[in-house]
Amino acid sequence: MRRVKKMSSSSIITAVFLLCCLANGSTGSQDDCVYAATGSSLTVPLRYELKESDNLKWFKDASAIFNRRRKQVIMGKNDAVDSTGSLKLTQLTKDKSGRYRPEVINEDGMNVGGDLQSVRLCVLDRVQKPTVTTKTCTDNGHVNFTCSVGQNENITWLMDGEMLEEKGKTLTRVAKDVLNANFSCNVSNPVSSEISLPVQQNCYKPMQKPHVTVNCTGESEVTFTCSVSQKYNNLEFKWFNEENKLQGSGETLTRKTDDVVNTRFFCNVSNSISSEISDPAAQKCSKPSFPNELFGISIWVFIGGGAGLLILVIVTATVCCVRARRKRRI
Ligand SMILES: *[C@@H]1O[C@H](CO)[C@@H](O)[C@H](O)[C@H]1NC(C)=O
Ligand SMILES: *[C@@H]1O[C@H](CO)[C@@H](O)[C@H](O)[C@H]1NC(C)=O
Ligand SMILES: *[C@@H]1O[C@H](CO)[C@@H](O)[C@H](O)[C@H]1NC(C)=O
Ligand SMILES: *[C@@H]1O[C@H](CO)[C@@H](O)[C@H](O)[C@H]1NC(C)=O
Ligand SMILES: *[C@@H]1O[C@H](CO)[C@@H](O)[C@H](O)[C@H]1NC(C)=O
Ligand SMILES: *[C@@H]1O[C@H](CO)[C@@H](O)[C@H](O)[C@H]1NC(C)=O
């Protein structure tokens, strides 16, 4: 026997209950509630065929809320009951929760209704649309999704539209396994349900292009740092020279300045879902002391050429002087 009736949520619909399945309504447990949403309407049926001469009373818990002697309404509003004597409840608020019970007395003062069925009404607010927040990864690569949820609300989780086993407020997953999956929670109470917007794990984001900063450390060392603009988890760094030869791993690369005077390095930073490489960068700690090239021609060509020219001039001058002296002597 089922005693819980779930009300659908449309606020204008007036619900009439079939009470055949509700046995005697005298037990007070939460479970025999007939649920209705705040703002909706419902009619509590009178399961008795009224005669014109009958007196009708409706009670909410211990107090009478409606009393009609024959056709004259003594307590309550005329339109509070319909033509069959059923009680019409509109614009429900939580304080209208309670047990509603009818009583029918005939003109001789006899209770002719007998033990008429009462209804325990429980008015609940509709649930709010939930949101899912994502906590960044734990160290062991798990991601927690947390659903905002009120008290006494039932949660289910959806991954890409499929319902999951878990029912709790927090859902934990290995982030790597759900890189692009959409998670939402479905929050419900007996009168309504709402689904959150989907979210994805945020432990692993697509990488953005890193850049290399150069730091002259100490007298003769240079440190290259691979910088990323956002915060990422579980990054892997690799360093390459311009010949694409692997030079090292880790966020920084330290070298003796003299060894890398003209070497340009770039870094490759990757996480589980993407990777990016930086532009190459060279150290600026020690400028080469002497330019190596001029107009693309090795400096030694110029030095050699200059020296050769000087020697030629000296030799020519010497030769000329010697000749001139000889001429004068002659
Ligand atoms: C993630 O959820 C698990 C299980 O609910 C919990 O034990 C853990 O503390 C949570 N971690 C974080 C970082 O919130
Ligand atoms: C939540 O709803 C499901 C499906 O209606 C039901 O099986 C489950 O028992 C409910 N859980 C709670 C805690 O109310
Ligand atoms: C997750 O949601 C986004 C946008 O809401 C959609 O583009 C994407 O296809 C969804 N992914 C899956 C696996 O359903
Ligand atoms: C959300 O939960 C309610 C109550 O359990 C259920 O009726 C509804 O079908 C669920 N919605 C989805 C999309 O799973
Ligand atoms: C360069 O290195 C020194 C010592 O390691 C450090 O204090 C400084 O912040 C670094 N500068 C940059 C720009 O990284
Ligand atoms: C960077 O490293 C990742 C991970 O090892 C690799 O998959 C990717 O191809 C590399 N990217 C480039 C541009 O070399």
Automatic annotation (TrEMBL):
<protein>
    <recommendedName>
        <fullName>Ig-like domain-containing protein</fullName>
    </recommendedName>
</protein>
<dbReference type="InterPro" id="IPR013783">
    <property type="entry name" value="Ig-like_fold"/>
</dbReference>
<keyword id="KW-0812">Transmembrane</keyword>
<keyword id="KW-0472">Membrane</keyword>
<dbReference type="InterPro" id="IPR007110">
    <property type="entry name" value="Ig-like_dom"/>
</dbReference>
<keyword id="KW-0325">Glycoprotein</keyword>
<feature type="signal peptide">
    <location>
        <begin position="1"/>
        <end position="28"/>
    </location>
</feature>
<keyword id="KW-1133">Transmembrane helix</keyword>
<dbReference type="GO" id="GO:0016020">
    <property type="term" value="C:membrane"/>
</dbReference>
<feature type="domain" description="Ig-like">
    <location>
        <begin position="102"/>
        <end position="196"/>
    </location>
</feature>
<dbReference type="InterPro" id="IPR015631">
    <property type="entry name" value="CD2/SLAM_rcpt"/>
</dbReference>
<feature type="domain" description="Ig-like">
    <location>
        <begin position="210"/>
        <end position="278"/>
    </location>
</feature>
<dbReference type="InterPro" id="IPR036179">
    <property type="entry name" value="Ig-like_dom_sf"/>
</dbReference>
<keyword id="KW-0732">Signal</keyword>
<feature type="transmembrane region" description="Helical">
    <location>
        <begin position="294"/>
        <end position="322"/>
    </location>
</feature>
